[in-house]
Amino acid sequence: MTRPQRPRPPEVPIFTLYGEQGAISDLEFVHIEEIAARSQRYGWEIDSHAHRGLFQMLCLFGGGATVHLDDATFDMRPPAALVIPPTVVHAFRFLPGTQGCVLTLADALLSGADAPQRALFEPLMSGPHLVDLGRKDGVAQRVAALLEQIFDEFRFPRGGRDQMFDWLVRAVLLLVARQLSAAPLSGSTPGRADLFARFRGLVEAHFAEHWPVPRYAAVLNVTESRLNRLCHALAGKSAFDVVQDRLLLEARRKLYYIAAPVSQLAYELGFADPAYFCRFFKKRTGVAPSTFRRQRGEG
């Protein structure tokens, strides 16, 4: 007799805006709303979720929040901005009455920019970041003023709205990018930043296929040594470690959010042998996958 299969637990919800299903096809999609507009509806708590193809920035000007970002937890205090690139799992618990807003846009607005502009925004796209807006006098006020102008355009559409969105959004992101402390990226040139962004895009698409570094280099039409020099300069690690870190991040996400057997997750991550996956995970984290899952559950 065939044993009935246990239904597989759902993965992390993928939303457009929190609580809303569907895909965004507009490559110039821009949305802005106050934090209270959505979080108050859910008791000031936003459960774990992610966005595909959407870049978000949460700006906090009053109150506070406990932030869960992938498997990290920290407190966010104003004035600050939280940068969340696509596919990063995040959740929030806001203090009631928290003031601020959430800006959401299609990541194509940034990745589709010309090379010099992509270089300016690359620090924001390199990963999630918590950015202190209070380190320089007036920066928080300038960011708030630009966001208010975006609100105005959003509430009262007028001629040239898309162009105005484009200018205002780029202005506020550039202010935040200036505040972001990203020393490894500070000396990059547009060409190097563009090449690194292309490498990261390939890693995102193929990390679970376990491409070797020479294959990435071949697709990028560069030597393996040049790719390694680029990664050391812009990320502080080798190309191999960039790929392995992305694979590890996905492993941690699956172990934390999906209650499937470790062996099944290993196969989903492209490992032919679950034992090899366990060795890989323990080597890079210091604990076995089962131990990591148990520790996260206890936390």
UniProtKB/TrEMBL annotation:
SMART domains according to UniProt: HTH_ARAC
Gene3D superfamilies with a match to the protein in the record: Homeodomain-like, Jelly Rolls
Sample GO molecular function, one term: DNA-binding transcription factor activity
Pfam family, one: HTH_18
SUPFAM superfamilies: Homeodomain-like (SSF46689), RmlC-like cupins (SSF51182)
Keyword Ribonucleoprotein listed: no
Residue span, HTH araC/xylS-type domain: 197-295
Record bears the keyword Magnesium: no
Name of the protein: AraC family transcriptional regulator
